[in-house]
Amino acid sequence: MIKVAVCGALGKMGKEVVEAVNNSNDMELAAKIDIIGDCYKSIEDAYESVKFDIVVDFTQPKSIFENAKYCLSNGIKIVVGTTGLSDEQIEELKSLSTDNDTGCLIAPNFSTGALLMMRFAAEAAKYFDNAEIIELHHNQKKDAPSGTAIKTALMMGEAKNNFKLNNCPEKETIQGSRGGTSYSDIQIHSVRMPGYMASQEVLFGSSGQILSIRHDSTDRKCYMPGVLMAIRHVVEKNDFIYGLDKILN
């Protein structure tokens, strides 16, 4: 049995992970970690009391980097679902994972539909010179843009280095109107609104046509097959992965 600790266990995603692990035939919930409730208050406290194989972290952007560094520095495998890590932080975690021979998987999104949306966008990027991303989330999401939007832009940017072909010179009369500029000059627009859970639309344009690739998540349960897949992969392969798309067959 894979012994799993869930960090952020009382959050919306954490509760779903706890239930998914409990319902899995090859996993055992070894520890619940959260700053509230009847839980271990930190990964350190939990690991001193209960030995587990892997941590699944769905906490907050402000704490995930230190949590991941602690795990990898102490030989604890980790699956990271919290977004908000910078490119530099991801590279540092990759080095820690390699140096300490400890598996780590960081995934901006665990939904198979979202992963396919990203894959389709990366393929379409080869054939269009203009593209923008609109991501829409609930108004309790603290980081913007979303990790999914950043990862999508990164994948699209591998096709070319400029997605603003023939755009005229722009001047924002209200700062931020055009969103944020990401990889390969892809504009990302972040919407935060009650009623949404997680949605993303990638728009491609060329003369006479628009291609729209969109994915909507309406229930957090859609992430759980991907989370369980990530746990099994890290325990078995013990490698560093950024993006669940890397292990999606």
| CATH structural class of the largest domain | Alpha Beta
Q: Helicity level, as a percent range?
A: 25-40%
Query: Per CATH, which architecture of the largest domain?
Result: 3-Layer(aba) Sandwich
CATH superfamily of the largest domain: NAD(P)-binding Rossmann-like Domain
In the residues, how many domains can be counted? 2
Strand percent estimate: 15-25%
Radius of gyration: 19 Å
Task: Tally the beta strands.
Answer: 11
Structural class label = alpha/beta
Q: Largest beta sheet: what is the strand line-up?
A: 2-1-3-4-5-11
Structure explained in plain terms:
There is one protein chain. This protein has 249 residues and is α/β, with parallel strands linked by helices. The chain has 2 domains: 2-106 and 220-246, NAD(P)-binding Rossmann-like Domain (Rossmann fold), CATH 3.40.50; 112-217, 2-Layer Sandwich (Dihydrodipicolinate Reductase, domain 2), CATH 3.30.360.10. It has helices spanning 12-22, 43-49, 61-73, 87-99, 112-124, 147-157, 224-237, and strands at 2-7, 27-33, 54-57, 77-80, 104-106, 130-137, 180-181, 187-192, 198-206, 209-217, 240-242. The strands form 2 sheets. Strands 2-1-3-4-5-11 form a 6-stranded parallel beta sheet, with helices on both faces. A hairpin with a 2-residue loop joins strand 9 (198-206) and strand 10. Helix 5 packs parallel to helix 6.
